[in-house]
Design goal:
Mannose-Binding Protein A, Chain A, PF07588 family protein, five-stranded mixed β-sheet, CTDL_fold, 5 helices, DUF1554, C-type_lectin-like/link_sf, single chain, 14% strand, three-stranded antiparallel β-sheet
Length: 240
């Protein structure tokens, strides 16, 4: 091939590369400048994003999807809220998941936020394995409180207290409730799960089992009282 022909081929390849680069910039015109953003030509994930966009023939789909995901992200509560269910229940709550569902459907629940039941059992949820979580927050199992976080009453936003580094509300500024209301718990006074006093893991509402409870107009929120599981008591629900 002549020198002139070789130069022509080189120019064609160079021009095609420029065109491809400009085309890719157009495809990702919606991108924010983020080093891990597949919509950003400077990102290490840019090539992946490019193939996705070409395959879908939609230059905006990938970026729009990312923006929707970012917009729908739920921020952690601060402070977090606590309420007591308007409806009392026997100890047959349908397990921990059933109790969580009752929190979600209760009329006292605010319109925003996700809430879980402040309960302990032998299978699904616990605060501590040892007294006051001597081994740290690693002892938690699906625990409902966060370390070093403030909690307030839903009804009037009055402060209840702040958890310690183990996610335990060791001291309270105010009780959870002003009127006397008892709630099921399943804890010992040292935040460990009561061995057998949790209404058979909150599935049995008969008088064959017993569950621990406490009057939430007093401090602290956990106590040593108990009752047969065929009796009705409310639930404490904690924002996540």
């Amino acid at each position: 091939m002549s020198k002139k022909g070789t130069n022509s081929v080189r120019n064609l390849i160079f021009e095609n590369r420029i065109q491809l680069f400009l085309f890719s910039l157009y495809l990702f015109s919606c991108a924010d400048l983020k080093m891990n953003n597949p919509c950003d030509p400077l990102s290490k994930d840019y090539t992946t994003g490019l193939f996705v966009k070409i395959a879908t023939n939609d230059k905006d789909a990938y970026c729009d999807a990312n923006r929707k995901n970012e917009a729908s992200a739920v921020l952690p509560c601060n402070p977090c809220r606590i309420f007591i269910t308007a409806v009392p229940y026997s100890g047959g709550l349908g397990g921990i998941s059933g109790a969580d569902s009752k929190c979600a459907l209760d009329t006292n629940k605010p319109n925003s936020g996700t809430y879980k039941a402040f309960l302990s059992d032998a299978i699904v949820r616990r605060a501590c394995l040892t007294a006051n979580c001597g081994g740290g927050a690693s002892e938690h199992l699906d625990w409902v409180m966060k370390p070093n976080s403030s909690y307030v009453r839903v009804a009037d936003a009055v402060a209840i207290g702040t958890t310690n580094s183990n996610g335990l509300l060791m001291t309270q500024t105010n009780p959870v409730s002003i009127p006397s209301v008892t709630t099921w718990l399943g804890f010992n006074a040292n935040w460990t799960t009561e061995t057998s006093l949790h209404c058979d893991n909150w599935i049995d509402g008969s008088n064959s089992f017993v569950g621990t409870l406490n009057d939430q107009s007093t401090n602290p929120m956990i106590g040593a009282a108990s009752n047969l599981c065929n009796n009705s008591h409310s639930l404490l629900c904690v924002e996540q």
